[in-house]
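Hi F.,

I've been meaning to write this up properly since the lab meeting, where we talked about keeping a consistent format for the predictions we share between groups. The idea is simple: the sequence comes first, exactly as it goes in, then the structure tokens exactly as they come out, then a line or two of notes. No screenshots and no reformatting. I'm using this chain as the first example so we have something concrete to point to.
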Amino acid sequence: SLPNVSVLKKGYPVIHYEGPDKAPTVTFTKTPPEGWVRLGDISKAAVGAIVVSEDWAFYQHKGYDPNQIKKALEEDLEAGRFARGASTITQQVARNVFLDKDKNLWRKLKELILAVRLEEVVGKRKILETYLNIAEWGEGIYGIQAASDHYFGKAPAALGAREGAFLAML
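Output, unedited:
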């Protein structure tokens, strides 16, 4: 009973933010929604800084990073709680588009399965473009266009590596 990730292949998720006390909802459109920025229209320096900060092995893994999962499990067991995340960019897309935000092992397992499917069906380029357009870059600020406007007053194409690193830190 997992969601069909193939809708992302030709569709575009739209995040609907209704305030800090309510989880955002997601719908899909067949055309890019307002504010959607194609990957080629975001500076390579900013994209590179974000990828290195968020998921340095993005182009090498198949949706998940076993080394990061192992480290996270070790830290979580030691702390007795979910203390460290290990989600790749692909897993973040799976969670933010298709799943709820509850921190539990069942959701993490579904996230892992969906991430592998996303890599197989959708591909790295669309996954990365989707991530950059749906990520929350501050309270209620979704997508690189909104973040670029809000923090720097410029288009995503004009962002530098330092600005990309700042966004990744958020």
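Notes:
The chain is about 50% helix and 5% strand.
The first helix runs from residue 7 to 10.

If this format works for you, I'll send the rest the same way.

G.
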